[in-house]
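Progress note, sequence design subtask.
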Protein backbone atom coordinates (compact mmCIF):
# COMPACT_ATOMS: atom_id res chain seq x y z
CA UNK A 1 0.00 0.00 0.00
CA UNK A 2 1.28 3.48 -0.92
CA UNK A 3 1.68 5.92 1.96
CA UNK A 4 0.31 9.40 1.21
CA UNK A 5 3.19 11.17 2.98
CA UNK A 6 5.63 9.58 0.54
CA UNK A 7 3.62 10.93 -2.37
CA UNK A 8 4.04 14.40 -0.83
CA UNK A 9 7.80 13.83 -0.79
CA UNK A 10 7.81 12.81 -4.47
CA UNK A 11 5.75 15.86 -5.40
CA UNK A 12 8.12 18.18 -3.49
CA UNK A 13 11.09 16.63 -5.29
CA UNK A 14 9.42 17.08 -8.67
CA UNK A 15 8.63 20.73 -7.89
CA UNK A 16 12.02 21.68 -6.46
CA UNK A 17 14.48 19.48 -8.35
CA UNK A 18 16.86 18.37 -5.58
CA UNK A 19 16.61 16.26 -2.46
CA UNK A 20 18.06 19.14 -0.42
CA UNK A 21 15.47 21.64 -1.68
CA UNK A 22 12.61 19.18 -1.13
CA UNK A 23 13.88 18.47 2.40
CA UNK A 24 13.92 22.19 3.23
CA UNK A 25 10.32 22.66 2.08
CA UNK A 26 9.13 19.56 3.95
CA UNK A 27 11.14 20.42 7.09
CA UNK A 28 12.96 17.08 6.88
CA UNK A 29 16.59 16.10 6.55
CA UNK A 30 17.89 15.15 3.08
CA UNK A 31 18.54 11.66 4.48
CA UNK A 32 14.91 11.32 5.57
CA UNK A 33 13.71 12.43 2.13
CA UNK A 34 15.94 9.86 0.45
CA UNK A 35 14.65 7.14 2.79
CA UNK A 36 11.02 8.05 2.06
CA UNK A 37 11.64 7.96 -1.69
CA UNK A 38 13.43 4.61 -1.45
CA UNK A 39 10.49 3.23 0.54
CA UNK A 40 8.06 4.54 -2.08
CA UNK A 41 10.02 2.76 -4.82
CA UNK A 42 9.74 -0.45 -2.80
CA UNK A 43 6.00 0.05 -2.39
CA UNK A 44 5.36 0.46 -6.11
CA UNK A 45 8.06 -2.02 -7.21
CA UNK A 46 9.52 0.34 -9.83
CA UNK A 47 12.33 2.88 -10.08
CA UNK A 48 10.95 6.36 -9.71
CA UNK A 49 14.22 8.33 -9.78
CA UNK A 50 17.52 8.44 -11.61
CA UNK A 51 20.48 10.54 -10.55
CA UNK A 52 22.01 13.07 -12.94
CA UNK A 53 24.97 14.62 -11.18
CA UNK A 54 23.73 16.50 -8.13
CA UNK A 55 20.13 16.54 -9.35
CA UNK A 56 17.57 13.77 -9.43
CA UNK A 57 15.38 13.14 -12.49
CA UNK A 58 11.91 11.62 -12.31
CA UNK A 59 11.57 8.45 -14.41
CA UNK A 60 8.57 7.75 -16.63
CA UNK A 61 7.15 5.56 -13.85
CA UNK A 62 7.62 8.42 -11.42
CA UNK A 63 5.85 10.87 -13.73
CA UNK A 64 2.95 8.45 -14.09
CA UNK A 65 2.70 8.13 -10.31
CA UNK A 66 2.76 11.92 -9.96
CA UNK A 67 -0.36 12.28 -12.12
CA UNK A 68 -2.20 10.07 -9.65
CA UNK A 69 -0.46 11.63 -6.64
CA UNK A 70 -1.88 15.09 -7.41
CA UNK A 71 -5.41 13.67 -7.48
CA UNK A 72 -4.84 11.64 -4.30
CA UNK A 73 -3.33 14.58 -2.39
CA UNK A 74 -6.20 16.83 -3.47
CA UNK A 75 -8.76 14.31 -2.24
CA UNK A 76 -6.89 13.82 1.05
CA UNK A 77 -6.93 17.57 1.59
CA UNK A 78 -10.66 17.64 0.89
CA UNK A 79 -11.18 14.83 3.38
CA UNK A 80 -9.13 16.64 6.02
CA UNK A 81 -11.17 19.80 5.48
CA UNK A 82 -14.41 17.86 5.67
CA UNK A 83 -13.40 16.48 9.07
CA UNK A 84 -12.40 19.93 10.33
CA UNK A 85 -15.66 21.41 9.09
CA UNK A 86 -17.61 18.67 10.81
CA UNK A 87 -16.13 19.85 14.08
CA UNK A 88 -16.14 23.60 13.39
CA UNK A 89 -16.65 25.29 10.06
CA UNK A 90 -16.89 28.87 11.27
CA UNK A 91 -13.50 29.69 12.80
CA UNK A 92 -9.93 29.37 11.61
CA UNK A 93 -6.96 30.96 9.91
CA UNK A 94 -6.42 31.57 6.20
CA UNK A 95 -2.82 32.30 5.24
CA UNK A 96 -2.57 34.52 2.19
CA UNK A 97 0.51 35.45 0.11
CA UNK A 98 0.36 38.50 -2.16
CA UNK A 99 2.60 41.08 -3.79
CA UNK A 100 2.83 44.46 -2.07
CA UNK A 101 0.43 46.40 -4.30
CA UNK A 102 -2.22 43.71 -3.97
CA UNK A 103 -1.82 43.82 -0.19
CA UNK A 104 -2.51 47.57 -0.26
CA UNK A 105 -5.35 47.51 -2.81
CA UNK A 106 -7.07 44.21 -2.04
CA UNK A 107 -5.94 42.34 1.05
CA UNK A 108 -5.95 45.14 3.62
CA UNK A 109 -9.44 46.44 2.68
CA UNK A 110 -10.76 42.86 2.51
CA UNK A 111 -9.28 42.05 5.91
CA UNK A 112 -11.17 45.00 7.40
CA UNK A 113 -14.43 43.90 5.71
CA UNK A 114 -14.03 40.29 6.85
CA UNK A 115 -13.80 41.37 10.48
CA UNK A 116 -17.46 42.36 10.21
CA UNK A 117 -18.77 39.55 7.99
CA UNK A 118 -16.65 36.61 9.24
CA UNK A 119 -15.52 37.39 12.79
CA UNK A 120 -14.20 33.86 13.28
CA UNK A 121 -11.78 34.20 10.34
CA UNK A 122 -8.19 35.31 10.93
CA UNK A 123 -6.18 36.35 7.86
CA UNK A 124 -2.40 35.91 8.11
CA UNK A 125 -0.74 37.96 5.36
CA UNK A 126 2.65 37.38 3.72
CA UNK A 127 4.39 39.69 1.26
CA UNK A 128 5.48 37.53 -1.68
CA UNK A 129 6.75 39.12 -4.88
CA UNK A 130 7.00 37.62 -8.34
CA UNK A 131 6.25 33.90 -8.54
CA UNK A 132 6.81 33.34 -4.81
CA UNK A 133 3.12 33.39 -3.85
CA UNK A 134 2.27 30.45 -6.12
CA UNK A 135 5.33 28.55 -4.93
CA UNK A 136 4.28 29.04 -1.30
CA UNK A 137 0.74 27.93 -2.18
CA UNK A 138 1.88 24.71 -3.87
CA UNK A 139 4.28 24.01 -1.00
CA UNK A 140 1.39 24.25 1.48
CA UNK A 141 2.78 27.31 3.27
CA UNK A 142 -0.35 29.37 2.51
CA UNK A 143 -3.97 28.61 1.60
CA UNK A 144 -4.44 31.44 -0.89
CA UNK A 145 -2.14 33.31 -3.27
CA UNK A 146 -2.62 36.53 -5.22
CA UNK A 147 -0.35 36.64 -8.25
CA UNK A 148 0.21 38.23 -11.64
CA UNK A 149 -0.27 36.25 -14.84
CA UNK A 150 3.05 35.86 -16.66
CA UNK A 151 5.00 33.38 -18.77
CA UNK A 152 6.15 31.42 -15.73
CA UNK A 153 2.66 31.02 -14.25
CA UNK A 154 1.23 27.51 -13.83
CA UNK A 155 -0.79 26.43 -16.83
CA UNK A 156 -4.55 27.16 -16.74
CA UNK A 157 -5.21 23.41 -16.85
CA UNK A 158 -3.00 22.68 -13.83
CA UNK A 159 -5.39 20.52 -11.80
CA UNK A 160 -3.63 21.29 -8.54
CA UNK A 161 -5.01 24.85 -8.57
CA UNK A 162 -8.28 26.71 -8.85
CA UNK A 163 -7.88 30.25 -10.26
CA UNK A 164 -10.16 33.24 -9.73
CA UNK A 165 -9.57 36.34 -11.92
CA UNK A 166 -9.60 39.51 -9.83
CA UNK A 167 -8.76 42.50 -12.03
CA UNK A 168 -6.88 43.68 -15.13
CA UNK A 169 -4.84 46.82 -14.59
CA UNK A 170 -3.50 48.87 -17.53
CA UNK A 171 0.04 50.21 -17.47
CA UNK A 172 0.94 53.89 -17.68
CA UNK A 173 4.14 55.63 -18.73
CA UNK A 174 6.07 57.41 -15.99
CA UNK A 175 8.15 60.28 -17.33
CA UNK A 176 10.35 63.16 -16.16
CA UNK A 177 8.34 66.37 -16.02
CA UNK A 178 10.44 67.89 -18.83
CA UNK A 179 10.10 64.93 -21.20
CA UNK A 180 8.40 65.81 -24.52
CA UNK A 181 5.89 62.98 -24.07
CA UNK A 182 4.79 64.47 -20.74
CA UNK A 183 3.03 67.22 -22.71
CA UNK A 184 0.59 64.85 -24.47
CA UNK A 185 -2.59 63.22 -23.15
CA UNK A 186 -1.63 59.70 -24.28
CA UNK A 187 1.85 58.35 -24.91
CA UNK A 188 2.69 56.26 -27.97
CA UNK A 189 5.18 53.71 -26.68
CA UNK A 190 7.31 54.01 -29.83
CA UNK A 191 8.22 57.59 -28.84
CA UNK A 192 10.14 56.21 -25.84
CA UNK A 193 12.35 53.89 -27.92
CA UNK A 194 15.37 56.21 -27.66
CA UNK A 195 15.18 56.75 -23.89
CA UNK A 196 17.05 55.07 -21.06
CA UNK A 197 14.72 52.77 -19.11
CA UNK A 198 14.24 51.77 -15.49
CA UNK A 199 13.24 48.11 -15.39
CA UNK A 200 12.17 45.61 -12.78
CA UNK A 201 14.56 42.74 -12.07
CA UNK A 202 14.63 39.33 -13.72
CA UNK A 203 11.93 37.10 -12.24
CA UNK A 204 9.49 39.95 -11.59
CA UNK A 205 6.33 39.28 -13.69
CA UNK A 206 6.08 42.99 -14.55
CA UNK A 207 9.34 42.76 -16.48
CA UNK A 208 7.84 40.22 -18.89
CA UNK A 209 4.82 42.44 -19.57
CA UNK A 210 6.92 45.57 -20.21
CA UNK A 211 9.49 43.83 -22.41
CA UNK A 212 6.73 42.24 -24.49
CA UNK A 213 4.99 45.61 -24.92
CA UNK A 214 8.23 47.20 -26.11
CA UNK A 215 8.87 44.29 -28.46
CA UNK A 216 5.39 44.67 -29.96
CA UNK A 217 6.11 48.39 -30.38
CA UNK A 218 9.19 47.48 -32.41
CA UNK A 219 12.11 48.13 -30.06
CA UNK A 220 14.16 46.68 -27.23
CA UNK A 221 14.42 49.13 -24.29
CA UNK A 222 17.88 50.39 -23.34
CA UNK A 223 17.89 49.42 -19.66
CA UNK A 224 19.99 51.73 -17.48
CA UNK A 225 18.63 51.03 -13.99
CA UNK A 226 16.82 48.25 -12.11
CA UNK A 227 14.33 48.50 -9.25
CA UNK A 228 11.30 46.52 -8.05
CA UNK A 229 10.19 49.39 -5.81
CA UNK A 230 7.84 51.77 -7.63
CA UNK A 231 8.63 54.63 -5.26
CA UNK A 232 12.31 54.22 -6.18
CA UNK A 233 11.38 54.05 -9.87
CA UNK A 234 9.47 57.35 -9.52
CA UNK A 235 12.45 58.97 -7.80
CA UNK A 236 14.81 57.86 -10.57
CA UNK A 237 12.40 59.10 -13.24
CA UNK A 238 12.02 62.43 -11.45
CA UNK A 239 15.82 62.72 -11.44
CA UNK A 240 15.73 62.37 -15.26
CA UNK A 241 17.48 58.97 -15.11
CA UNK A 242 15.06 57.39 -17.57
CA UNK A 243 11.47 56.37 -18.24
CA UNK A 244 9.41 53.35 -17.27
CA UNK A 245 6.01 51.71 -17.34
CA UNK A 246 4.12 51.05 -14.12
CA UNK A 247 0.71 49.51 -13.36
CA UNK A 248 -1.91 52.25 -13.15
CA UNK A 249 -2.66 51.84 -9.43
CA UNK A 250 0.81 50.90 -8.22
CA UNK A 251 2.04 54.46 -7.71
CA UNK A 252 -0.60 56.74 -6.18
CA UNK A 253 1.98 59.49 -5.60
CA UNK A 254 4.60 59.77 -8.38
CA UNK A 255 6.16 62.88 -6.83
CA UNK A 256 7.46 65.27 -9.48
CA UNK A 257 7.41 62.55 -12.14
CA UNK A 258 4.46 62.46 -14.56
CA UNK A 259 2.08 59.54 -15.23
CA UNK A 260 0.48 59.35 -18.67
CA UNK A 261 -1.83 56.68 -20.14
CA UNK A 262 -0.64 54.76 -23.19
CA UNK A 263 -2.25 54.63 -26.60
CA UNK A 264 -3.78 51.23 -27.43
CA UNK A 265 -2.87 48.42 -27.39
CA UNK A 266 -2.20 48.97 -23.71
CA UNK A 267 -0.16 46.38 -21.76
CA UNK A 268 -2.10 45.02 -18.81
CA UNK A 269 -1.29 43.43 -15.47
CA UNK A 270 -3.74 40.54 -14.96
CA UNK A 271 -4.13 39.69 -11.29
CA UNK A 272 -5.71 36.49 -10.04
CA UNK A 273 -6.23 34.56 -6.83
CA UNK A 274 -5.27 30.90 -6.62
CA UNK A 275 -6.12 28.17 -4.15
CA UNK A 276 -5.23 24.50 -4.08
CA UNK A 277 -8.01 22.47 -5.67
CA UNK A 278 -8.57 20.52 -2.47
CA UNK A 279 -9.48 23.69 -0.52
CA UNK A 280 -11.92 25.20 -3.03
CA UNK A 281 -15.00 24.34 -0.93
CA UNK A 282 -13.70 25.50 2.44
CA UNK A 283 -16.20 28.11 3.73
CA UNK A 284 -13.54 30.42 5.18
CA UNK A 285 -11.60 30.41 1.92
CA UNK A 286 -14.84 30.99 -0.03
CA UNK A 287 -15.63 33.94 2.23
CA UNK A 288 -12.15 35.37 1.66
CA UNK A 289 -12.38 34.96 -2.13
CA UNK A 290 -15.84 36.54 -2.25
CA UNK A 291 -14.62 39.57 -0.33
CA UNK A 292 -11.48 39.91 -2.48
CA UNK A 293 -13.65 39.87 -5.62
CA UNK A 294 -15.93 42.60 -4.24
CA UNK A 295 -12.93 44.71 -3.31
CA UNK A 296 -11.38 44.20 -6.77
CA UNK A 297 -14.64 45.18 -8.49
CA UNK A 298 -14.55 48.55 -6.71
CA UNK A 299 -11.02 49.46 -7.85
CA UNK A 300 -10.82 52.67 -9.95
CA UNK A 301 -9.55 51.03 -13.15
CA UNK A 302 -9.94 52.46 -16.60
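Output:
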Amino acid sequence: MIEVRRLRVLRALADHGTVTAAAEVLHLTPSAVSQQLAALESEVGQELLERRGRRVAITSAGRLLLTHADTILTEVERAEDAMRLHADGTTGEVRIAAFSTAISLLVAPSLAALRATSPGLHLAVRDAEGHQAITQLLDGEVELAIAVEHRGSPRPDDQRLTRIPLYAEPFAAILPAGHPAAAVDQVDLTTLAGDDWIMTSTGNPIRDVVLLACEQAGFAPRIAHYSDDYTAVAALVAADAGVSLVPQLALPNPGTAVLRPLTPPTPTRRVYAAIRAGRADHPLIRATIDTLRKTAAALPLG
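The chain has three domains: 4-85, 91-167+270-297, 168-268. Work on this subtask will continue into the next period as scheduled.
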